[in-house]
Amino acid sequence: MVADQQALVPVRDRHDAVWLIAIWVVLSIGGCLAVYFAMGPHMPPGAMSTSAANQQFDNTVLATTATPVVIGVLLYFGWAMAFWRPAPGDTTDAAPLHGHTGVAVTWIAVTSVLVLVLAVFGTYELIAPAGSGGGEGPQPIWKPAGTVAASDTSWTPGTKNILQVQVIGQQWVWTFRYPQFGGFETTQLMLPVGEPVQFNVTSLDVIHSFWAYQLGVKADANPLVNNVAFTTPYHTGQFTVRCAELCGIWHGAMYDSGQVLSVPAFVSWAKLTEIRLARLTKMLPPYSLTYDPTVIPTLGKVLTQLGLTGAGGGFYSPADPEQP
Ligand SMILES: [Cu+2]
After folding, report:
1. What is the DSSP string of 31-90?
2. Alpha-carbon distance 99 to 315, whole Å?
3. Angle 34-232-245 (CA atoms, 0-180°, nearest 5)?
4. 172 C-alpha to center of ligand 1: Å?
5. CATH 2.60.40.420 placement within the chain
6. What's the whole-number mean pLDDT along residues 99-121?
């Protein structure tokens, strides 16, 4: 009787395996399609810029790849609970398990290849096609295709010269300098749509992290370091700016918002702001990729003292046609 029961076990297991694999394949195909096509377009951080779209694509591919694994684990777990649990009152031990070299080797090989391929794929996709939205340090290796070393003094839309935007973090406000428009400093982060942007991120005190969420840009702001990040906005509209590095008691209030404008609207904003802030720009230290905090205490303070920063840092002029 005991021998008969043991002989039946492998047959039952084979049926289970066939069913499990069949159900797993069907569910995985459906799941992968649903994740890639239905969830993919809603994956963070959206597709407002090249860097955001690259991250969204990465997130979509990684989630799609993980789907069969998750389905496999949950299916096996559910199947075991439904069909392999002991009958009520059965307190005997289960049959001993023995290692299976083929299964172990296959599992290690498949998961290792999967992880390594995804690591290489994800890294390449994040940085290579359009330059990284994460800081690449002072000498970036990957730049947006077709761009050249930027001039600090001029920028013309549609050329290979990248728009330079300096991001300055300090406790607890973000300010932005536009060196190609006379080096004015403002709390408004305005960008033109469809034009490559180079963020030069630095800090005047502690370590901050410039995080323009919808643009997929996140770069550490370190004092005396120029940390470069690239993006090209795809759409006009508003995006949020936060500090992503705990930087003191008002870290959580260190937020701002930025706006992607049409190219003509951006150019007129930049030229207007250059003129409007000319009086203040003269009081600032000359544009530089980094500033020594012990020598340069004026950046940002000028705007603050004159009451030009509103709650959340953003201030909008009634003269700005893009603002309500
Ligand atoms: Cu901060």
Report:
1. HHHIIIIIIGGG-TT-SSBHHHHHHHHHHHHHHHHHHHHHHHHHHHHHHHHHHSSPPTT-
2. 67
3. 80
4. 6
5. 163-283
6. 91
CA of 232 to the centre of ligand 1 (A): 24
In CATH terms, the superfamily for domain 163-283 is Cupredoxins -  blue copper proteins (2.60.40.420)
How many Cα atoms sit within 13 Å of 218 on the Cβ side? 12
Between the two ends of the chain, the Cα-to-Cα distance in Å is 85
Distance from Cα 300 to the centre of ligand 1, integer Å: 14
b/e per residue, 166-186, with b = 16+ CB within 10 A? bbbbbbbbbbbbbbbbbbbbb
What number of helices (H) and strands (E) belong to the chain? 6, 10
Give me the pLDDT at residue 97, please. Answer: 82
In angstroms, what is the span from residue 149 Cα to ligand 1's centroid? 29
Distance between Cα 209 and ligand 1 center (Å): 6
| CA of 187 relative to ligand 1 center, distance in Å | 15
What token pair was written down for 102? 């083929």
Q: Whole-model pTM?
A: 0.78
Q: Provide the pLDDT for residue 298.
A: 59
Distance 61 CA to ligand 1 centre (A): 32
Q: Which two tokens stand for residue 92?
A: 């005997």
